[in-house]
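Ops channel
N.P.: pipeline sanity check, posting one input/output pair.
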């Protein structure tokens, strides 16, 4: 039976460390979060970010903009935040209304305040291995693997999903850590043949029940990123058949309580890292995890 990777406790411990480190800085690290429209999931995420900032002793600013806001108005707010010295990280909660170009907005965030690491310059730095911060979900997964001493070096790592925010940067991170990486996606012909090779299987497809025990190698570490909301009960489930796969894997993440809390903790860590860079207390370098 697999060890259950407890993202919730680990994230709480990381937040404590962040709070202690932040308390020693000359000023509070600052995060500005912009939300457009009234999508309930986005609202929950932004509420959580605000709560986490308070728990870490950070300065936070929040902008709740109507869905009718123009791209120019949004760009104006981002421009002001880019110039605001109390703000170390700027994030715009995605998705945005169809009338606004997400690419244009993401590219308007100053790269040195790009706390989500979605800017093309940040992505380039990840490819070249010189990124001060990485996207929160992949770095949260790496931190969890490290905390449980699950090695990546030399392992076969299968990434199901290739989105810009999870799958692609996760694969890059695993490659940086000397994993042998296989990307799978909707066009992958025989998904099970790929996933069965995985020492580390990471799944972010958004397809409940996608990964069954026959698709998992005995002893694998299985990381379920997905957060699928059951419309009937409102409960969240992952993409992995947890009860049956846990009998075959060595390690497995629960949903909820696995990757989600780690993603939240890494956002705080990214704000702290950017703040230290802005205060001249750190050198722009490589990832530490
Ligand atoms: P996305 O919809 O942008 O991408 C999904 C990817 O999965 C695509 O690359 C697609 O090709 C692939 N895919 C879909 N069905 C597949 C199938 N049957 N076989 C193989 N590949 C398939 O999704 P995303 O933004 O990366 O999010 C994925 C999931 O992770 C969602 O459930 C989302 O809610 C969740 N998520 C969780 C966190 C967290 O912190 N826990 C963070 C981000 C996303």
């Amino acid at each position: 039976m697999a060890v259950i990777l407890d993202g919730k406790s680990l994230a709480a411990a990381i937040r404590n460390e962040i709070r202690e480190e932040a308390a020693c800085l000359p000023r509070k690290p600052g995060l500005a979060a912009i939300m457009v429209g009234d999508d309930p999931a986005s609202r929950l995420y932004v509420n959580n970010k605000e709560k986490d900032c308070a728990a870490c002793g950070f300065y936070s600013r929040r902008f709740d903009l109507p869905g009718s806001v123009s791209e120019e108005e949004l760009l104006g707010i981002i421009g002001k935040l880019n110039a605001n010295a109390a703000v170390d990280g700027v994030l715009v909660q995605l998705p945005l209304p169809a009338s606004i170009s997400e690419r244009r907005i993401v590219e308007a965030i100053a790269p040195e305040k790009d706390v989500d690491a979605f800017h093309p310059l940040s992505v380039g730095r990840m490819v070249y291995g010189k990124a001060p911060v990485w996207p929160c979900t992949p770095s949260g997964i790496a931190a969890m693997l490290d905390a449980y001493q699950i090695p990546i070096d030399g392992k076969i790592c299968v990434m199901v999903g290739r989105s810009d925010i999870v799958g692609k940067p996760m694969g890059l991170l695993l490659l940086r850590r000397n994993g042998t990486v296989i990307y799978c996606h909707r066009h992958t012909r025989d998904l099970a043949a790929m996933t069965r090779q995985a020492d580390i299987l990471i799944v972010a497809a958004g397809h409940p029940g996608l990964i069954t025990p026959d698709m998992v190698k005995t002893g694998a570490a299985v990381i379920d990123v997905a957060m699928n909301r059951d419309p009937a009960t409102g409960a969240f489930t992952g993409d992995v058949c947890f009860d049956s796969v846990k009998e075959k894997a060595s390690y497995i993440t629960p949903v909820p309580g696995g990757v989600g809390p780690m993603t939240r903790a890494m956002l705080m860590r990214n704000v702290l890292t950017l703040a230290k860079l802005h205060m001249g207390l750190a050198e722009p370098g490589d990832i530490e995890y």
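N.P.: looks fine end to end. The chain has ten helices and eleven strands.
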